[in-house]
Specification:
By secondary structure, the protein is mainly beta. It contains two helices and eleven strands, in the order αββββαβββββββ.
């Protein structure tokens, strides 16, 4: 082989190594979970991932963050919901006599705050319940009339007009 062919062959081999892509073994996994945990009158958001063997890295430029990895930071809106996020619940009976039943149509992962106001806006009833799918509110001490009830879990809110007979 001539000297010129040898130089061209070495150059081609060198350039292939410099400009080629390398395959790296990475493990992708869809296993893991995220959920709320309620303990000692506080709720916590827990995330876990199983099988991540790839690089975890954060790059920041200006007001933007680029993150690589399975577990990403959770935005406050994901945890606390939008301020206008409606609460899915059924309130019955209405009109009521002594008790109001509230059944939630979605999983309850935090404390439930119940506020009842008269039509003048005065707070007559306030109570915080532990997480539960259904609750019973005893309001036998209220006189007959029209009331507004506010049911709140985090930022999710339901306001209902109630009548006591």
């Amino acid at each position: 082989m001539s000297n010129q062919n040898w130089i061209i062959t070495c150059f081609l081999l060198f350039s292939m190594n410099v400009f080629s892509q390398f395959i790296k073994k990475e493990t992708l996994s869809s296993q893991g979970s995220s959920h709320y945990v309620y303990a000692k009158n506080k709720s916590y958001f827990i995330q876990q991932s199983i099988g991540q063997a790839s690089v975890i890295y954060t790059y920041t430029a200006g007001n933007y963050d680029l993150r690589q990895g399975f577990l990403q930071p959770v935005s406050p809106s994901a945890l606390y919901g939008d301020a206008n996020d409606p609460l899915n619940a059924v309130i019955f009976p209405n009109p009521f006599v002594n008790e109001i039943n509230i059944h939630f149509g979605e999983a309850v992962n935090d404390q439930i705050t119940i506020l009842i106001y008269d039509i003048l806006g005065r707070l007559l009833y306030e109570r915080v319940f532990n997480q539960n799918q259904s609750i019973v509110v005893n309001v036998s001490n209220l006189s007959n009339g029209t009331y507004l009830m506010r049911v709140q879990i985090r930022q999710q809110t339901l306001i209902a007009k109630l009548v006591k007979r």
